[in-house]
Amino acid sequence: MIPPSVLPGPAPSVRPAVTHSGHTPLEAALWDFDGTLADTEGIWIDAEFELVAELGGTWSAAHADQLVGNSLLDSGSYILNVIGRHDVDPAWVVDRLVSYVIVRLRNQPMPWRPGALELLNSLRAAGVPCALVSASYRILLEAALDQLPEGTFDVSVAGDEVTQGKPHPEPYEKACAALGVEARNCVVFEDSITGARSGNAAGALVVAIPHRVDVPAAPRRVVVRSLVGLDAGAVTELLQRADDLV
Q1: How high is the pLDDT of residue 18?
Q2: Is residue 5 part of a domain?
Q3: pLDDT, tens digit, 9 for 90 and up, residues 193-204
Q4: Domain match, 71 and 125 both
Q5: Looking at residue 147, what is its pLDDT?
Q6: Nearest 5 degrees, angle CA 174-CA 130-CA 21?
Q7: How many CA atoms lie within 13 A of 7 on its CB side?
Q8: Could you say which residues of the chain have pLDDT below 50?
Q9: Interatomic CA distance for residues 31 and 188, integer angstroms
Q10: Do 82 and 128 reside in the same domain of the chain?
Q11: Of 58, 162, 218, 232, which residue has the fewest beta carbons closer than 10 angstroms?
């Protein structure tokens, strides 16, 4: 569990407005999981190398980077196409990858990204609702949520709970609907091009924190090197300037 000094107590049930100079408040913060909240991409890549070898194929870091932010079924199909194993069901590939990652997550400390827990703590202290929105399946998100205080996230949306995954806006639209907020007044934290496109398509401001792959600039998107030093006030100020971001 995370020490109380890092993430104290459950999130408030009342949503105070976080605003500056009378502008529209920051209504919610929506978090991607893999590569954004937690540095799990390396675990996924280890799983890919192990599985591809088992299937008699050859894998590379370049191929692994192509999967960052993708839906799991799309990733399974990509792997099978690369190694020419069209006799295997992508869903079977996904099951094997998920099983590998779950074992790792449950048997080691969660590798949180720098500054992520501190920013999450600041948002919670300011009364900003937070949602976890991931391409990973529910069983994986539960492994992550188990390592956080209860109530850290008001809502979570998993990759197996949407009809269309990222880069489609559905995952973030679903989270906003569950929170009762307008996406335009929310901030999405993402590390991948696919995820950033999803957040922008939903109408949110995207704060991109590139990890394994570069994320290009775009309207209503700001790219930062790290979450370290960001707090609820700084994120709110970014939202106020969202329409000026190119």
Answers
A1: 56
A2: no
A3: 999 999 999 999
A4: no
A5: 83
A6: 105
A7: 20
A8: 1-17, 21-22
A9: 6
A10: no
A11: 58
